[in-house]
Amino acid sequence: MTITIKQLQKGLADKQFSSVEITQDYLNKINQKNIDLNCFISVTGELALKQAASADAVIASGKGSVLTGIPMAHKDIFCTDGVKTSCGSKMLDNFIAPYDATVIEKFNRSGTVMLGKTNLDEFAMGSSNENSFYGSVGNPWDTSRVPGGSSGGSAAAVAARLAPGATGTDTGGSIRQPAALCGITGIKPTYGRVSRYGIVAFGSSLEQAGPFAHTAEDCALLLQSMSGFDPRDSTSVDQAVPNFSVDLNKDIAGLKIGLPKEFFADGLDSDVATVIETAISEFHKLGAEIVDISLPNMGLSIPVYYVVAPAECSSNLSRMDGVRFGHQCENPIDLEDLYKRSRSEGFGEEVKRRIMIGTYALSAGYYDAYYLKAQRLRRLIKQDYVKAFEQVDVILCPTTPEVAFKRGEKTDDPINMYLQDIYTLSLNLAGLPGMSIPAGFSQSMPVGLQLIGNYFEESRILNTAHKFQQVTDWHLKAPEVK
Amino acid sequence: MTLKTEEVRNIAHLARLQINDSNVEQYTNDLSNILNVFKQMKLHDTTNILPMAHPMDATQRLRPDVVSETNQREKFQAVAPDVEQHLYRVPKVIE
Questions:
Q1: Gap between the Cα atoms of A272 and A403, Å rounded
Q2: pLDDT tens digit string along B32-61?
Q3: B52 → closest Cβ in A339, A375, A455
Q4: Domain hosting residue A230, numbered range
Q5: Number of domains in chain A
Q6: Is A75 annotated in the active site?
Q7: Inter-chain contact B30–A307, Cβ cutoff 8 Å?
Q8: Does any CB of chain A come closer than 8 Å to the CB of residue B90?
Q9: What is the mean pLDDT of residues A177-187?
Q10: Nearest-angstrom CA–CA distance, A462 and A220
């Protein structure tokens, strides 16, 4: 049974139930199902009920806004004042954030209720949620499979109906890929749309926060609350935020949807391809014009991303020094020993690999050949999209090359794991908005369809997704979680 | 491209990571494999293409030089592993 935020909102307004009641209901479900799924690192029940009670008072006074009293889960990468913010790492296992991220502050102001903090790949580095210090997460459709990553806990929680909405961050696909593998809707907005203040940083020029929910309509509501210029984030873009819900129902007849041939080539599972083709015919029926396009430099996304992201990671994670916060080793003999042992004990394998790759790519003698070269190629990738958007309004492709894989299947092969993000990475390199919506099933597992928009055109992809969800019901299918 | 184990030890040192002798080989293999993926970047000519550091080519904003944050030392040091008299304690650096 799928209950959307829109439905909860109506029920709260009509006094069918209170925020305390629905919050308690979600907490009960989390209590029952989190043991198997492991999608929450912390459940903040007491705080949630307190927030729900204040939300009920606000609603009763007639001063509630659209999200007042709506329970949500937050990825454990957002700093939450007074609540553990682990980022899935042993390094931050003891870290109680001393302030709220802007996104959290905005949700608090909207009156949402925080159910807890969700599991993720350590420091958001991974595509399967298997790199978490707190253990891997089960995909609610089949717990022997991964939920995707890095925001795997948030996606699994929403898919298992343990929360009606959740936050995630997306540095190379970390919202869209788990949304696809768990059969829910998720959007990564344009770079700079949502403040990064208070998000534990990994790839500063790539990452953006965004919401997960069951529908594009709900995502529009959540994204509305998250977006906006923030002077505290130097990468935030000072651009007016439109009302994302206004154009949801706009007719998409005549909308030009581009299909990039590079994203339908070798490597795409044939069953996934069939699901996507069926979805394309739905868009065609809705009156959209389907156009073949080419993004010739997409093959470069993997090498460019895996130079740029680790370079930024090695720089960002240098703040984890074992001195000011986080894990500190026992009895250091000197300062170098303190740094080295604290970091080696605190970080997991994938994080160490990426820090080392980044350190190498930025080191003297290699900077031009790797980092600068990657930054130049990054511009070519962006230019491909700029040219494509002269021809089309929206770009459509699969979100992932295959459905959720088995836990443990790719853990020994980092490069194979990196290939899972082949259709999602280039958007982060270019800074474009993209979303994943459920489009059908293959091997009884959900298939995600990706919609890519031009800069700051989140409204258009939300509109395209909403129209699709009006004529299909893939987004309402729920897994049976024991 | 294949890295030598000595290079991997040096990278680890630069990154202030300690790696055990038993997994130097593994890191050398993994990192070499990743560097091999980077090779295809060389095949593309990028003369006259400017490096792209920000998706919107934005530059850092300036703001008036006025105090905007208050000092919250107590709160921020409450999460530090080892603090004494408002100072972070580390092993002796100068003999």
A1: 7
A2: 999 999 999 999 999 999 999 888 878 888
A3: A375
A4: 1-482
A5: 1
A6: yes
A7: no
A8: yes
A9: 98
A10: 7
